[in-house]
């Protein structure tokens, strides 16, 4: 510690706490009986402990350097950005869309022209997958409302929904309108979600740190520097909305593969398909043509494009074929989208291999425990899971609706049998993996390793040592192999999907022996759809029941809208600038020291904020900045899964800039939270030592 950085008599310490995944109250965060909001806005509140008069109260005195220092406790509550209320509860239904953005963050970013070309192609395919997921959801909803209910249920016998009046059953136009309205309403709802931002929601946006301001610095690469808003989000949002409307317009026409006899229907059909092709080309080439699209299609022109696509919906409903006549076309439309998803994923997974190999030169010298998951190929299983969950949710919703109608005679698309078989096989595989992990892998590790030296160091009682050893073994195995198990399950399902696609093309019948898989898949999909809807319902009605849902949202809504725009806004794009702004406010006082303290996911946000502060603030302010992370998944969940977000070199450099004023706390029984620049520990002479990097990337 330099003499200039030694605290004077008027020194005070501000501890700014950031909560983790599960939303907490201000009282829990600050260990206070009551808290009061001192700054912030509707989404991000800054709170302090309060006295009986609801006035801000000082925090507990800090004992340091042989004397007492006054301390101010502040907490930044950001849980309202991901949970609370009926609208945010329904965001969980967008989970497959969010996984596309997660996969975008997983892509490695190698240097050199070949790597940049491969990265651009992978990003293009990822955007195409996102667009196909949107089209699949709208089509599956159309199968339920237009085919299952309007055509088969209301157009068949009166045993299905007998309370529906006869005049509605007899009117084909009314049933057609009733079948189109639900998917159209979903399109409107998705568009409203995609335009939500903290600015539009009435929340004050954080002031951006501008170069040349009070705290300015030289531009350099920082930990978390890739976490920036997507520049093409508005264009991508328009293209997804147009695609959704075009898919709705295709529903009454019988899909893209049904030839039209009526001249008006044929014109609408051709225009619809031409626009769809243009949209997919624009999405694939968005990185190259985004600037031209923004110039040719400003905001008014984009609104006109959405309006034109919207006008095709009533035109298609007016000129469409009679209900029931286009049922085979809807089946083929669903199968066509699923086939396109398979081809897009195969292309993405294949090109990701050379991309990961190109990026390998940047991390091949790192220890194995710091290398990217699956050698940088983890984005491929993530995209596959997005496709499986997206297809499974639509099929499960249709199965649940048919069961609610108590009409087993209603026919579902033939492609849904393949989805049920796939989910049945996946359910059995997941049970086998979980059982093997719990009953074989864990006992073997406990027997081989016994009680580790670190457990003997931390616990004296033998029974406590045995219990702690079991917890440590479980956490270590989960930390080392959980992502491998998920990837293995995803690749196993990919192999099963290949077999089912071959069966579908060849026209083979499903063997009687596999009917059990079909039945199990039906149950699994029904539980998936019904369970997710129930969680959303209970989370919307009872705030306390939304904690687990909020934890899931915190993980997937961290990423900006890069591959799919129909997701909630990234809360990290607001939390990090807010923390930077608040820390700068306190650091402006020469006698104030600021400590950013974050738990779990909050530690990740505090880490990125600290990295930006070390870059934009002058050295005398950086000397008064400290960082505490507790149980943060920075290494296990982000440094390895998202190598471009938290590169090892940038993390070590951040530790050097803070000159040791960064302390990381973790529990050995925590499978996800752990070290950041250290990856191994050892007991030497009765002391616990870590193995890691120093700021100059030398081993210690």
From TrEMBL:
InterPro entries registered for this protein in UniProt: AB_hydrolase_fold
Keyword Aminoacyl-tRNA synthetase in record: no
Residue spans crossing the bilayer: 90-111, 117-138, 234-255, 267-291, 303-325, 337-357, 378-401, 421-441, 485-502, 522-540
Top-level taxon of the source organism: Bacteria
Transmembrane helix recorded as keyword: yes
Entry keywords, A to Z: Membrane, Transmembrane, Transmembrane helix
The protein, known as: Fungal lipase-like domain-containing protein
Lineage: Bacteria, Bacillati, Actinomycetota, Actinomycetes, Pseudonocardiales
